[in-house]
Amino acid sequence: MHGEIGRAQWIQAVAAGAAPEAAMNPVLLKPGSDHTSHVVVMGRPAGTLGARSFVDGGRAHLAEAAFAALDDLASRYDVIVAEGAGSPTEINLRANDYVNMGLARHASLPTVVVGDIDRGGVFAALFGTVALLEGADQDLVAGFVMNKFRGDVSLLAPGIERLAELSGRPTLGVLPWHPDVWLDSEDALDLEGRRAGDREAALRVAVVRLPRISNFTDVDALGIEPEIDLVFASQPHHLDGADLVVLPGTRATMGDLAWLRERGLADAIAKHAASGRAVLGICGGFQMLGRLVVDPDGVEGPAGAEVAGLGLLDVRTDFGADKVLRLPTGEALGHAAAGYEIHHGRITRGADVEDFLAGGREGNVFGTMWHGSLESDEFRRALLAEVASAAGRPAPTAEVSFAERREARLDLLGELAEQHLDVDRLLELATSGPPRGLRRLAPGAEQ
């Protein structure tokens, strides 16, 4: 039976040569609004969670699932890498934490704090992270890693030495920033365009940056194309001159439809489609392109809610309480394609809508329910040829393999880790546990 996990956990499993499974992401929270999240436990939908549950103790059952998954994995694997979410020093949420120091305390996990030096203030952030923890949490923090450094690493030496003196903990490496390291992620901080060298000759792709965007890694396959200039768009003028507008997945189809209208983007997308240029919707983005979205069971909001779509496809979407999870394969535009489905929506196509990877097509408006379908190289190139034809431009001619590019990026990341991290010390921590006698820092030491 298939289960849902985060894209980041999936790529980490692939990089480690392990089969992805639900225990690697036992609790997945997917924001449904500013105050609620959809909950997935061990790969299956498990209702919603309100913001107050983060401080009112309403997450105890989620902690139990996370702890049980870690214990299960530890019984089957020699080394477990548990990646935290957010900061380990979210002291306002610590009492009910199970994703950072709560998990570490459960299994006495040695903890390495990673700081993004590209954002500035990394020394203060690393020291402060430890100092604000309660003493028992500090006992698990064994060292630091700095990430995304640009320049001469020797310039960091005085700061690293002083950090060690003050904290009693070593820095176990400084990873450099590298332009070719970009991996599957679900962190919206990673949303960046992929600019072509020759922007005048390139096909321009504008991806709408929805407030609750999900599975935006669907467009990574477009980003590897050297003749594609890819940007993320949040204002109507960002679509000016685009040859293809992409509406990606969303965790809140109805809410993001309202956002499109408030921003004027709905009108801009309709104008783009009316000009004959191409539009592609993926999963929730595809549902937005239809006539109507209906929520009889209250999956996204009040039961029975109905919202008009953009009306670019004669398609109706009805949300069902049960989530559809599939790994489909098929053919479109004369080429094989594959992907994965994770959605509550069930679509009904009008008589004139052509089937398109379990979605629909009318003219130059395309919609698919298949995430990841653009990773199928021949299908992607055929779609780009359609886009170019609609724009009256030459089709891209480069032939690149997404699978090979992904493998090359993983290899590069591994090589950078070997070159710039104290891998032997990290492996020793993973197998021997946190060192004894670590210094406790005030004020956390007094808590």
From TrEMBL:
Domain CobB/CobQ-like glutamine amidotransferase: 204-378
Pathway(s) served: Cofactor biosynthesis; adenosylcobalamin biosynthesis
Stretches assigned to the CobQ/CobB/MinD/ParA nucleotide binding domain: 75-182
Catalytic center residues: C283 (nucleophile), H371
Keywords, sorted A to Z: Cobalamin biosynthesis, Glutamine amidotransferase
Pfam family, one: CbiA
NCBIfam families in alphabetical order: cobQ, PRK00784.1
Known function: Catalyzes amidations at positions B, D, E, and G on adenosylcobyrinic A,C-diamide. NH(2) groups are provided by glutamine, and one molecule of ATP is hydrogenolyzed for each amidation.
Family affiliation: Belongs to the CobB/CobQ family. CobQ subfamily.
Protein name: Cobyric acid synthase
Organism: Aeromicrobium alkaliterrae
